[in-house]
């Protein structure tokens, strides 16, 4: 294992003439998809619980499709399927975008985590105590102020434990990036295995890297729970 790290560690963990390492690519996929998907999910969750059917139904359809199909299939559709369409190849921006495996991977991961996160946030929005909402309305809060000051802060705080699981699952999902030839941790581990014929060490190192990232993420979410969910901890 030491020899593998000495020979290929620059590609996995540290830079040595490489623009990005496998670890950097994995973290970029995770952070970019979680941030963009999470921000979009906040707005979609509000629409998901809307009493207006024309606003609620498209969001339900979006979450149904992306939660009902495998992420692997979604990645293949974006990376291989979209580029086969004539109007994609005929549009300069879309042609350039879908030719990049990294762009397709980020898009698939973002939309997938957005669908799951939307349902998580929507569930906690529905769980906001009605007494808080009635009190805010009694004070004359507008719909926008009600969501900004009461509903969303309460729902997003309560959603931290469930959302942490989604982030960890999304970290694991980044391992599918090798499908689009993105040089993430698993793709480089596969290349190391092909060069050394030592799958235990090659994939074992990749597993340790994912465990280390998971350990850091779990610690960060534990700190977030201690800070924002202190009021619901048992005495």
UniProtKB/TrEMBL annotation:
The keyword Disulfide bond does not apply. Gene3D superfamilies: MetI-like. The chain crosses the membrane at residues 20-47, 59-79, 200-221. Signal peptide: none annotated. GO terms for molecular function: transmembrane transporter activity. Its main location: membrane. Keywords: Amino-acid transport, Cell inner membrane, Cell membrane, Membrane, Transmembrane, Transmembrane helix, Transport. Residues 23-221 form the ABC transmembrane type-1 domain. It is a multi-pass membrane protein. It holds the Pfam family BPD_transp_1. It comes from the Bacteria. SUPFAM superfamilies: MetI-like (SSF161098). One of its GO terms (cellular component) is ATP-binding cassette (ABC) transporter complex. It is found in: Cell inner membrane; Cell membrane. One of its GO terms (biological process) is amino acid transport. Belongs to the binding-protein-dependent transport system permease family. HisMQ subfamily. The HisPMQJ complex is composed of two ATP-binding proteins (HisP), two transmembrane proteins (HisM and HisQ) and a solute-binding protein (HisJ). The HisPMQ-ArgT complex is composed of two ATP-binding proteins (HisP), two transmembrane proteins (HisM and HisQ) and a solute-binding protein (ArgT). NCBIfam families: HEQRo_perm_3TM (TIGR01726), PRK15069.1 (NF011651). PANTHER family: ABC TRANSPORTER PERMEASE (PTHR30450), HISTIDINE TRANSPORT SYSTEM PERMEASE PROTEIN HISM (PTHR30450:SF5). This is Histidine/lysine/arginine/ornithine transport system permease protein HisM. It comes from Sodalis ligni. The lineage of its organism: Bacteria, Pseudomonadati, Pseudomonadota, Gammaproteobacteria, Enterobacterales.
């Amino acid at each position: 294992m030491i020899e593998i790290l000495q020979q290929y560690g620059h590609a996995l963990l540290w830079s040595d003439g490489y623009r990005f390492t496998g670890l950097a690519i994995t973290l970029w996929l995770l952070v970019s998809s979680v941030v963009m998907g999470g921000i979009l999910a906040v707005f979609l969750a509000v629409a998901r619980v809307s009493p207006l059917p024309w606003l609620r139904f498209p969001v339900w359809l979006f979450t149904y499709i992306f939660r009902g199909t495998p992420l692997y299939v979604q990645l293949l559709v974006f990376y291989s399927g979209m580029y086969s369409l004539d109007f994609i190849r005929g549009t300069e921006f879309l042609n350039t975008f879908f030719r990049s495996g990294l762009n397709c991977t980020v898009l698939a991961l973002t939309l997938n985590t957005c669908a799951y996160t939307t349902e998580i946030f929507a569930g906690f929005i529905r769980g906001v105590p009605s007494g808080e909402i009635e009190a805010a309305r009694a004070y004359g809060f507008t719909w926008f102020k009600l969501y900004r000051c009461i509903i969303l802060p309460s729902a997003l705080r309560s959603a931290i434990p469930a959302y942490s699981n989604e982030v960890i699952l999304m970290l694991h999902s980044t391992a599918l990036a090798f499908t689009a030839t993105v040089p993430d941790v698993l793709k480089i581990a596969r290349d190391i295995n092909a060069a050394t014929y030592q799958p235990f060490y090659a994939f074992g190192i990749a597993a340790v890297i994912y465990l280390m990232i998971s350990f850091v993420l779990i610690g960060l979410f534990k700190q977030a729970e201690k800070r924002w969910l202190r009021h619901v901890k048992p005495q």
